[in-house]
Every structure is written in structure tokens, then in C-alpha cells.
Amino acid sequence: MALFRCIKDNFYDGIQGYRVGEISSFPSNPNAALFESISDEEANAIEVDTTPLPAWKDLQGDWHVDADVEFENNVEFETLIAQSIELNTAGPIKPWKAGQIQFNPDTYALMADTSIENVRYNYGEELWYPACNNTGDVLLNGTVVYATGVSPTKNELLIDKAIANNPMSSLQTLGFVTNDIADGECGKVTYFGNVGGLNTDSYASEGGVLWLSADVAGEATQTKPTVGNQLVLLGSLLKKDATDGQIWATINITANSVPSYKSETFSSRGVGAGTYYLFGDYLAPTTDVTLSNASLSQALGTANAAYGMRPFAVFAGDGTVDTGQVGLRWISTSITDGGVRVTGDVQIITEDITAPLLNDYIDTPKKVIGAGIYELYVVSGSPTAYSVSFNYGLIKYEDFGNRDFVLTDVEITGLAGASDTSFQLILQKQSVDGWTYSAAGFSPGNGVITSMSSVYVLEDNVINGEAFHFKLDSTAIGDVILGSGSEGIMVKLVTTQNNTIQYLNCHIGASF
Predict the structure, then answer these.
(1) Measured between alpha carbons, how far is 501 from 498 in angstroms, rounded to an integer?
(2) What is the CA radius of gyration of the chain?
(3) Which end of the chain is more exposed for a tag (fewer CB within 10 A), N or C?
């Protein structure tokens, strides 16, 4: 063995620590950059201290480590400067401990334990907002929240449950609470990344898109909110489970569109008094029809007429069949909005004439052109006596291209060609509800949204040669119209004098 002097201060070789000037014995110089040989004369004069040098846990001050070191127990460093640190990638994951960093073999990410119990941050895979709860109640893990302000004492966002039917709430949606936050406490809100430990068992399927609910504050839903609510895409469902459900959060707020407008004009010059429509029309007799085993069909329309309307029926609720099952159908040339024309197309109105109740409205899925017929047909069995009564006709309404929309405003300007004290201007909603069957006095249409008479009350007359105007904005109207179904709008005009309207312009606004 030979003696060597340490020439580098605070050196640690992975087993022992050395300070400059300390003498150690080795079979040969382990590292010339760290140790120098001692002459025989000097060595004979030195009494080497054989007391074991300090282990790593006893080292004090600054130390230089030029070796690979594996620590199996806790190590505390005031400052650590290293070329690289290799963490255990095999697991298992250690229990939460504030300030602890470890490799997560499940997510393949570096994981840090926060000061909040059991809340862990995966570096590079999630984004958080620090936030505080002052709602007066606990905000549970997975609650969808929005920013309500800033805490004056902690300078962190204040949060509350978000809901899609409130623009103030939904447009400021932050994300999912990532831990239970008691009232008066602060925690984390995940804007991007994995939120786990949830009860997601009620959702339909994994991978499904999640939206901010318009019905329950703080909830996510896999059902897209209807038009009129704010669309906030929250992310997707990663795992469906009662206790270990997971959601991948990625918040995307879609602002409602700027209103779109449609306009139509009308004039009754040279036209007698009567009822007229804008943004749609009806072709419907005032009397009903009764079809039976003795009279199977009812014709409607004119050959080669360019109707582009839907056949409908409003039932008396009196359908009877002695045995078996009888249905009602429409037969004519159909036309789709895609321009597909089918001659002799059969569209089912009802497969059971005894099913519709009084005032039930049913229309066909496709529009028709030219003349057609309503016809009873046998669905099953061998019926011999059957009948049903209903009002019938063709209908066209404005649905903004089969889209769901919110009615935002209406504006009408015109010039009277005659004085009319009974003039009516009505904005109607077309839907399956609110129809009234009548054997001899059928009036097609239903749901009145608003009218000039109901708003103006007394001052609703039009005067010969004078202009008239009517306008309402979204503070007065805001009806949701499900144009993707059987809903739409019309403007109904009723004149009681010839030439009442010299001209009329109507503008309808809708937001999608």
C-alpha cells in the first residue's frame, strides 16, 4: 500500500468523502487528477489516521462527485449540481411525500409530489391553474370550474362551478378540479392533461367527447348541449370506472356565432285581403278528411307543381281498426335538399292509425313536388273495418339549412297601400306541438313567438300611404329552434283590406 494526498477539495468517489490535504492509502494512485503521491521521506513522517472517512450521509459542505452513485435511502442536498440524474424506472411508485420526485412507470413521465396531499404533477403532460375556493362548499375532484375573480390574500384565481347555459360562467371555464378543495382552501385546476381518481361509470363510452353540461353546474356530459347554450369542449373520457375513472382534459371554448340573417319581401298590390306567409307557406284545406276501408285515399296538390314542401297530418284521435294493423302513408315524387328526386316515393306518416292522439302533428321526412295522395294501407293482419280522421296539407318553414338556431332578432319595414285597422303581423314557431285539429275550420300553424299587436297593443294600425316598422332584438326574443328536426319559423301576415301592403321587407336573425 502507498500513501496519497488529496489535491481536490470535497471530493466524493461514491463510497467515501475526501478533503484537500487528507492522506489516504491505496495500492496505486486511483486518480492522478485527484491524488498526488507522497515521497517515502514524507510518508515515514506521517501517521495515517485509519479512522473510517465519513459516509455520504455525514458529509458536510460542498462536495464533488465524479462517480456514478446509487442512493437507496433518503438523501438531503442543500444544492445539487450534477451532469445527469438517473431515476429508478422499474417502480414501484412510492407513496406521496411533499417535494418528492420520481419516475412514473405508468405514464413514463417525471412525477413530482406537490404540497397538496396525494396531488402529483406529471412534468410535460399537464397544465394547472392554482386556484382557491370561496363558494361556501367543497369543490370535489373532477368538478368543472370557471374563474370568478382573484383572491386578495393569496393572489390566486377564485373558482366556482361552471355551467353551459350561463355565458358569464361558461366563457371563463378553466378546467377540472384535480383534488377536493374545501371552502377557504386552495388547490389545482387541470386545464390540460389527465384527471384521475374519478367516478366516470355513468358515462356511455370510453373515448367519447365531453362537453360542459347545460343542466348541472360543475358537471361534464357526453351529450352535446342544444343550441342556445355555450359549447365548451372539455376533453374526452379515458377510463370508465366507479372509483378510478380518468378524463383527458383539453379545454376548448367555442363562442356563439355572429347572427346570420335572411330577408324576404312581400306586396299585396293587386291582391285581395287574406292570409299570407313569409319564410314558408301552407297549402291546407280548412276541412278534414276521413279515410276508411271504404275510402282509402285523399289526393292533394297539382301535377308538376314545384312545391318543395312537406306533407303533414293533424289527427282527430279517432283511429279505429277491427283487427290487425293499418297505417297511413304519402305517395308522390320526393325531393331532398341534396337534389335527389325519387318518383313514386312512399313516405310513412304512421304505421298505426290508432296511435295518434287528438291534435298530434306528424310530417314526412322528405319534401315533395307535384301531386300526391294520402293512403291507408294494411300493415298486418286482415282488417275489414277501419277509419281515421285528420287535417292535412303541405308545409314549408325556415330552418336555416336544417340547423338548430337561436332566434336573435326580427325587423320589418313597409309601406301601406290601404288603411287597415285589423292588420296582423305574427312571428310563428313551427313545431310538432300546439296544433289544433278541426273538422271544418282548420287553421294551420301553431306557436306564436310574438306579434306586432301584442307588443304595440293599441298603435298597431297601418295607414294608407304611410310607413310602418316593427323590430325586436334578443332581449325580447331568444327562442331556440331545432331546425335539424321538425322546427322552423314563419311570418304570418293577415290583411282585411285590398292592397293593404304596398311593400314589406322582413329580416330574421339567427345564431347557431
Answers:
(1) 8
(2) 40
(3) N
pLDDT digits (tens, 9 = 90+) for 123-149: 878 899 999 999 999 999 999 999 999
Name the amino acid, one letter, at 195. Answer: V
Distance CA 211, CA 247 (A): 12
**DSSP structural state of residue 58:** G
Element containing residue 43 per DSSP (H, E): helix 40-45
Q: What angle do CA 281, 393, 429 make, to 5 degrees?
A: 45
pLDDT at 57: 47
**38, pLDDT greater than 60:** yes
Nine-digit cell string for 103: 419516475
Phi, psi of 211 (to 5 degrees): -115, 155
**What pLDDT does 154 receive?**
86
Least Cα distance to 63 among 76, 87, 51, 79 occurs for 79
How does 59-93 read in b/e, with b if 16+ C-beta sit within 10 Å? beeeeebeeeeeeeeeeeeeeeeeeeeeeeeeeee
pLDDT digits (tens, 9 = 90+) for 58-104: 555 555 555 555 565 666 666 777 777 778 888 888 888 888 888 98
How far is it, in rounded angstroms, from Cα 128 to Cα 117? 16
Measure the CA–CA gap between 194 and 238, rounded to whole angstroms.
Answer: 9
Q: What type of residue is 79?
A: T
Query: φ and ψ at 368, to 5 degrees?
Result: -130, 160
Task: Give the C-alpha separation, 76 to 380, whole Å.
Answer: 84
